[in-house]
Every structure is written in C-alpha cells, then in structure tokens.
C-alpha cells in the first residue's frame, strides 16, 4: 500500500477543504486486527516526533507516514505496530504525533480549529478529537486526540497561537471552541 501524500500547507485551504482532506484519509482497520504479539520492532518515536529504527532516524517521510497508519495503542497503554499477521512493540517517548500547524476559522462557539500533524494527517478538534492540557512541573503540555487513544503533542509555537486566540476572546477560563466543544487551555494560557 503506498503511503498517502501529505496535504498542502493549511494556510491556503478553507476549513471545508481541510475537512474533506481529513474525511478522505482512509486508514487500515488496525482495531480489527488481533495477531499474536511477535516481539519488538526496534523502533522508537522521540518526543520531538522523529521516528527511529535501531537507533537511526527514519529519513523518508513516506516511510514514516506508512508506519503511522499501522500504529495502535493497546488497552494497557503500550504502542504497537500491527498488521493482520504480526504485532510489534514500538517505544513512544511522549505522544506518537506532533501538531505542527494550526488553521482557525470562525469565532467564539462557531470556531473550528484544524491541525496538521508531522506525518501529514489533518485533524479538526471537536468532540471526537478533544484538546487537553496536562499541567506538569515544567509547564503545560498540550495534546490533541488523533484516533484510537493516539495523541499528538501540540508544538509550542502552535500552542502559543492557541493561547493568543483564547486570550483575545476573553473566555474565563481561557479556552477555545472547536467543532461545538469548548476546550479550556488552563491557568497558564
């Protein structure tokens, strides 16, 4: 199966076009595959979203996109690469994906927020793709639910864009609407 091509830069697309791209993305039915566990893949996804195999970065974006389509999170929290015939562990340091670009359209409760991930997927925040902020000792860590228990860490510049939008709207607590849902951005936004 060839790896899908990444979408163009979000800034040149309308939200309707972004939603169509997201809807057209067809992923393998990894939830339906239940092969026996076969071991470790020798792969790791670093906190910055870089994929490694046996210690070396995977330099081909198309290969990373292809692997990302067979990534699944198990009920016990482990991440695995799964096909109909094998299941291999993969180490994930933080979240498997990174939200690297934001497109906002509308205002207040009519706003929609679309994110482009480092692997080329496009996700529109809403009830099925919530935003959350994990408060930690080193500050807020923002995430977007992508699919099946898999999250994208929101890159710091993108988080700053979200915070700026939220502060300009003056909600208390600071936060933003997207897809009909309100997402608080935490005390530090």
Task: Summarize this entry quickly.
Helix content is 17%, strand content 39%. By secondary structure, the protein is of the alpha+beta class. Strands 3-2-1-6-5-4 form a 6-stranded mixed sheet.
Structure description:
This protein has 189 residues and is an alpha+beta fold. Helices cover 17% and strands 39% of the residues. It contains 3 helices and 14 strands. The chain has helices at 15-24, 61-68, 156-169; strands at 37-45, 51-53, 56-57, 71-73, 79-82, 87-92, 97-105, 112-117, 122-124, 131-136, 139-147, 150-154, 175-178, 181-184. It has a 6-stranded mixed β-sheet with strand order 3-2-1-6-5-4. The chain has a 6-stranded mixed β-sheet with strand order 9-8-7-12-11-10. A hairpin with a 2-residue loop joins β10 and β11. The longest helix is centred in the last third of the chain and has 14 residues, at 156-169. The N and C termini lie far apart (42 Å).
Using the CA coordinates, give the radius of gyration: 17 Å
Derived structural class: alpha+beta
Shape: elongated
Please tell me the overall pLDDT.
86
Helix-strand layout with pairing:
Layout: H1 15-24, E1 37-45, E2 51-53, E3 56-57, H2 61-68, E4 71-73, E5 79-82, E6 87-92, E7 97-105, E8 112-117, E9 122-124, E10 131-136, E11 139-147, E12 150-154, H3 156-169, E13 175-178, E14 181-184
Parallel strand pairs: 1-6, 7-12
Antiparallel strand pairs: 1-2, 2-3, 4-5, 5-6, 7-8, 8-9, 10-11, 11-12, 13-14
